[in-house]
TrEMBL record:
MF terms in GO: transmembrane transporter activity
Species: Desulfovibrio psychrotolerans
GO cellular component: plasma membrane
Identification of the protein by name: ABC transporter permease
Claim: Cell membrane is one of the keywords in the record: yes
Membrane-spanning parts: 6-25, 37-56, 62-81, 93-112, 142-159, 186-206, 218-235, 240-257, 269-288
Length: 309
């Protein structure tokens, strides 16, 4: 029984990283007042870039940075339209998803079925030797450890640093923040590009560590789950990681049942369960927040800012 729980938990931790990276980036983006619905597209191009750079260099660091760079570049395009041109952010984000998905599908044909760089597992000295806990949490790839570190770091930046105060001020009332001398456009550009880099990192994690290699639509909607996770987490990094672990745990159940040969429900229903459960939990959280009058998100979210009014 304990071995089964450890197996499921280890897969849950492994499965949670991509969604968490993307959700964390979107938290910063939305905290600054910009809505980016292009997470799915940025994850896809990040995954493809990770495979392409990894195949060319055989260097996991460069492959990871390549995924982040491509995701950040697409986010920069969204930032230009949303912040500089002040177009509808919902439409711009959806266009970004279509663009990213189309580019990944077209350019990725050359990498389908080809061997890809695989990120190796790092065993943390001493900690990996702890019974059960060590195997679950400290025998993972480096990007999983990066997720561990990003949780407290992101929370500190958002809620304890001067930069975080500026980000939240811009997201709540851009005009007042501008009057106080905060560079609204620069903050929003920086957060949007950071969000794109994190989405690209999530995609690169999928193609380098989770299921190495490239295949069509390999994110399988995790970009949309990440956006839902932001609302589920009420724009807080710690709760976002908890939500990502929940998603990862539900995804891990299908691997457990496949490994043990137990078929509680048909496999195609089981594969739907993590996404369905995420939607149900999201609805419950939104209803609870509505009754409490909280959780509405940054007040200026999706609202373009201009000094001319």
């Amino acid at each position: 029984m304990l071995e089964d729980i450890a197996f499921i938990t280890k897969i849950a931790v492994k499965s949670s990283a991509a969604v968490f990276f993307a959700a964390l980036g979107e938290i910063f983006t939305q905290r600054s007042g910009v809505l980016n619905l292009g997470v799915e597209g940025m994850m896809l191009v990040g995954a493809l870039a990770g495979v392409a750079v990894g195949s060319a260099t055989q260097n996991p660091v460069l492959a990871t940075l390549g995924g982040m760079a491509v995701g950040g570049t697409l986010a920069l395009l969204h930032a230009f339209f949303a912040i500089t041109l002040r177009v509808n952010q919902t439409l711009s984000g959806l266009a970004l998803t279509i663009l990213g998905g189309g580019l990944a599908s077209f350019l990725g044909r050359a990498y389908i079925g080809k061997p890809a760089l695989r990120m190796t597992v790092w065993n943390v000295p001493y900690l990996s030797d702890i019974p059960v806990v060590g195997d679950v949490f400290f025998r993972q790839t480096p990007l999983v450890y990066a997720a561990y570190l990003l949780v407290p770091a992101a929370a500190w930046v958002l809620f304890r640093s001067r930069l975080g105060l500026r980000i939240r001020a811009v997201g709540e009332d851009a005009a007042s923040a501008d009057a106080a001398g905060v560079p609204v456009a620069a903050i929003r550009y920086g957060c949007t590009v950071f969000g794109g880099c994190m989405a690209g990192l999530g995609g690169a994690y999928l193609s380098l560590a989770y299921t190495p290699g490239w295949k069509e639509n390999m994110t399988m909607g995790q970009g949309w789950i990440a956006i839902a996770m932001v609302i589920f987490a009420t724009w807080h990094p710690v709760r976002a990681y908890a939500g990502a672990l929940l998603f990862g745990g539900l995804a891990a159940l299908q691997f457990f049942f496949q490994a043990t040969g137990v078929e509680v429900v048909p496999i195609h229903i089981l594969r739907m369960f993590p996404y369905l459960a995420t939607i149900l939990v999201l609805i419950a959280v939104m209803r609870l927040d509505r009754t409490r009058g909280s959780g509405a998100g940054p007040a200026a979210l999706g609202i373009p800012f201009s000094r001319e009014g």
